[in-house]
Amino acid sequence: MAASGYISAANLNCLLGARNLSNPKVGSADATISLSFGGSDSMGLSVRPTSFRAPKRTHFSPLRVVCVDYPRPELENTVNFVDAAYLSSTFRASPRPLQPLKIVIAGAGLAGLSTAKYLADAGHKPILLEARDVLGGKIAAWKDEDGDWYETGLHIFFGAYPNVQNLFGELGLNDRLQWKEHSMIFAMPSKPGEFSRFDFPEILPSPLNGIWAILRNNEMLTWPEKIKFAIGLLPAMLGGQAYVEAQDGLSVKEWMIKQGVPERVTDEVFIAMSKALNFINPDELSMQCILIALNRFLQEKHGSKMAFLDGNPPERLCMPIVDHIQSLGGEVHLSSRIQKIELNDDGTVKNFLLSNGKVMEGDAYVFAAPVDILKLLLPDNWKGIPYFQRLDKLVGVPVINVHIWFDRKLKNTYDHLLFSRSPLLSVYADMSVTCKEYYDPNKSMLELVFAPAEEWISRSDEDIIEATMSELAKLFPDEISADQSKAKIVKYHVVKTPRSVYKTVPNCEPCRPLQRSPIEGFYLAGDYTKQKYLASMEGAVLSGKLCAQAIVQDCEVLAGRGQKRMAQASVV
Questions:
Q1: Distance between CA atoms of residues 40 and 480, nearest Å
Q2: In this structure, is the dihedral angle defined by the CA atoms of residues 302, 308, 309 and 313, taken in order, positive or negative?
Q3: Spatial distance between the Cα atoms of 322 and 251, rounded to a whole number of angstroms
Q4: Domain that holds residue 239
Q5: pLDDT tens-digit profile of 40-99?
Q6: How many Å is the Cα radius of gyration of the chain?
Q7: How many CB atoms lie within 10 A of CB 62?
Q8: Of 445, 472, 502, which residue is a domain's last?
Q9: Are 280 and 399 in contact (CB under 8 A)?
Q10: Which domain of life is it from (predicted)?
Q11: How far, in whole angstroms, is CA 480 from its chain's centroid?
């Protein structure tokens, strides 16, 4: 557990020792402590759990564990955070254009929102179009008839997301991230209902904190396996980024065999990690993806520390970005689906034709929707260009997000992200504990990522729930059974995304396009475009910044195109 957390309770009649704070299941049967969401001025006193002894009391009211949040880690002094902050500052410091460019952007996920935000910061006018009636793209969410939210995915914000963390800071949203203790928690399939932890000590710098976390865990890997894995990783640690990029041609499984890493290391750790990173298994995932994650987690002290958003993403993250864009003169339009990219005689973009019949014209155009949609709308005149031909290798991976509301509060869980190590499930969390807006003291809501989903995406919701419950019975053997003879399902939602983030299989890296296309005035944004964070929220935000940067750099050329277009229109 971290050195301190914040606690607050309406009926706090006793203080218990650190052992009771670290795990809700540990402690006396007749008394636990009520913990509330910390990290804000209104959350009450700060405590250091290891610095006090529980006072002797003969009478006290029963209390329950609710949740524990941790202070925001110190991220500002990391190289990547500083670099991201500098890139953000270049937009605000850029010379104000005499005539702001009008940039039409298709897609209001994080990539499109990021592009529009930083273009607006640079003094231009983004016109952001979203096909659906909800913001967020891959982080979209919906409210059901009971007022409960269900999301496209289970989203975790890492300390190693410098551009995302800067974005929160720029918008004044740092208090909307609920930081959890610096741990990674894995279910133990061989011991149903039990978990194994990797705890990163606060007092150690990186990479020692990560090394310590691995060495201290003796439940998942033996010492000989740890040593062989460490030896296998040496080339990556010594070779740096050049080595990491060179591993794109190998799958995780192939790389492990090549480096002499025991197969059990893959089974125990990297199946779960592969599914969490890209929703596929190690025999498909490019090793470059794993090495990039390990690189960030080991090189940055708080890189692997996780935070949950304190509520639904459209309102708690996307709307503040929209408000910022609109405050600077930009526009955001929902239910505005692109039907066709219409071209001029010279092959450049003439306009975006919407399905509602509207025609959107601008000085520049950005396609920030998923790569699979781009390929569907790609004009025939462009299909022979190598830049676009290489996109054929990039294909979205299917994923399913499952939400189940139960009739009771489940006990065998943590206030954290959990790696299920199930053959059907990836990660999960009890959102009634981890998230302020979804908090419920009496009933649990599990949000689970069902992956790999290739064979399940066309199956019925009922089939998916039945399979999920069978897996949950192994994770909660005392509380859940497949036939619901124990905890009962109150309701559920299943969200299917047939094409989510691009499938990071070997040899994809050369196919990822730069944000500036060979078509003058046409740009791309999205986590599949060229940036160092691959398919992630961080990758999407960074891609938007790089796209905005390219447009700002091309400002004079684009302004000339706009003047030419206006002159031609006046002649007509």
A1: 35
A2: positive
A3: 39
A4: 201-304
A5: 333 323 333 333 333 333 333 333 344 678 999 999 999 999 999 999 999 999 999 999
A6: 25
A7: 12
A8: 502
A9: no
A10: Eukaryota
A11: 28
How many CB atoms neighbour CB 435 within 10 A?
23
The answer, yes or no, to whether the previous bond of 452 is cis (omega within 30 of 0) is: yes
Is the Cβ–Cβ distance between 63 and 93 less than 8 Å? no
CATH number of the domain enclosing 443: 3.90.660.20
Span 468-488, pLDDT tens digits: 999 999 999 999 999 999 999
Quickly list DSSP for 468-495: HHHHHHHHSTTT--TTSSSSPEEEEEEE
Q: Where are the beta strands (DSSP E) in 175-286?
A: 177-179, 183-187, 195-199
Sign of CA dihedral 529, 532, 535, 536: negative
Specify whether the CB–CB gap between 222 and 261 falls below 8 A: no
> In this structure, what CATH number is given to the domain that contains residue 265?
1.10.3110
- Decide: 111 and 370 in contact? Cβ < 8 Å: no
Give the integer Cα–Cα distance in Å for 364 and 350.
10
Residue type, 207: P
For the sheet containing 177-179, what is the strand order? 157-158, 306-309, 177-179
Q: Report pLDDT for 420.
A: 96
Phi, psi (deg, nearest 5) at residue 28: -70, 155
Cα–Cα distance measured from residue 6 to residue 436, given in angstroms and rounded to the nearest whole number: 14
State both tokens at 130.
Answer: 């979203």
For residue 448, is pLDDT > 80?
A: yes
pLDDT at residue 30, as a whole number: 34
Averaged confidence pLDDT in the chain: 88
87 within some domain: no
Distance, in Å, from the CA atom of 358 to the CA atom of 431, rounded to the nearest integer, reads 41
End-to-end C-alpha distance for the chain, whole angstroms: 71
Token reading at 237: 């640690």
Q: Is the pLDDT of residue 4 over 70?
A: no
Using alpha carbons, list the distances in angstroms from residue 247 to 76, 181, 447: 30, 32, 33
Query: What is d(CA 287, CA 251) in angstroms, rounded to the nearest whole number?
Result: 5
Note whether 426 and 523 are same-domain residues. Answer: no
pLDDT of residue 565 exceeding 80, the answer is no
* Helices 162-170 and 537-553: angle between axes, nearest 10 degrees: 70
3-state secondary structure of 9: coil
In the three-class reduction of DSSP (H, G, I as helix; E, B as strand; rest coil), residue 568 is classed as helix
Among 194, 174, 197, CA closest to 184: 197
- Identity of the residue numbered 297: F
For the whole prediction, is pTM greater than 0.85? yes
